Amino acid sequence: MKSSRNKAGDPAAKTVAGEARQVQVAIDLIELGARLQLLQEETTLSRERLLRLYKEVKGESPSKGMLPYSTDWFMSWQPNIHASLFMDIYRFLVMHAGIEGVQALISAYRLYLDQMHGIEESEPILSITRAWFLIRFFKAGMMQLSPCKECGGYFVTHINELCDNYVCGICHPPARAGKTRAARQAALDVVGQTL
Ligand SMILES: [Zn+2]
Fold first, then answer.
1. Is residue 188 part of a domain?
2. 13, 31, 58 — which closes off a domain?
3. Domain assignment of residue 67, yes or no
């Protein structure tokens, strides 16, 4: 019987071309800043090969720190705007560009970085490892996109949140946010371009 598994059991990954594709995926992910655990989950390459590849690409060993597991990070003001932008891009690619899995993650994250570089003084605060977790939280039914009743954009929320009167962090930025108006306009521009 043929296995449709996409991981180590996949015979296609054992061919030279299949392995070359795996190495390319790993290099793309490393260049985008992925943590080692993400590489292990998303490729069929051994931990030893991934470690070597990581050192070759980055010139240093991967971080051994804890992975960012928490869903709460995505709910604070700026992270929520960045995460929502990323999910908008990701969802668009999956629905309309016919790509999925790790390729959708890589393409969506590159587009997210492009958007961030286009805005003055904005840093891409969503790491690819967090973006990867975000997709997992969506697939696990822990998070969803909810429409803001003021701007109509879609934003990341917890699945059990009451969203009838949801107002996003762009329309209602916290008072402590410095440069609020500029940030609001920049974020609106980004969301406008994406939708
Ligand atoms: Zn809004």
1. no
2. 58
3. no
Residue 85 neighbours by CB under 8 Å, 6+ apart: 112, 115, 187, 190, 191, 194
Give distance in angstroms: CA of 191 to centre of ligand 1: 10
Whether residue 27 sits in one domain with residue 86: no
Give the count of domains, the chain.
2
Ligand 1 centroid to residue 18 C-alpha, Å = 44
CB 147 within 8 A of CB 156: no
Q: In angstroms, what is the span from residue 88 Cα to ligand 1's centroid? A: 14
Please choose, from the candidates 144, 147, 148, 172, the residue with its C-alpha nearest in 3D space to the C-alpha of residue 160.
144
Residues 86 and 163 in one domain: yes
Written as tens digits, the pLDDT of the chain (195 aa) is 444 444 545 566 679 999 999 999 999 999 999 999 999 999 999 999 999 999 999 999 998 888 878 899 999 999 999 999 999 999 999 999 999 999 999 999 999 999 998 887 788 999 999 999 999 999 999 999 999 999 999 999 998 777 778 999 999 888 765 555 565 566 666 655 554
Q: Which residues surround ligand 1, an ion (CB under 5 A)?
A: 148, 150-151, 168, 171
Residues spanned by the domain of 32: 4-58
pTM for the predicted model, two decimal places? 0.83
The verdict on 10 and 89 lying in the same domain is no
d(CA 91, CA 119): 22
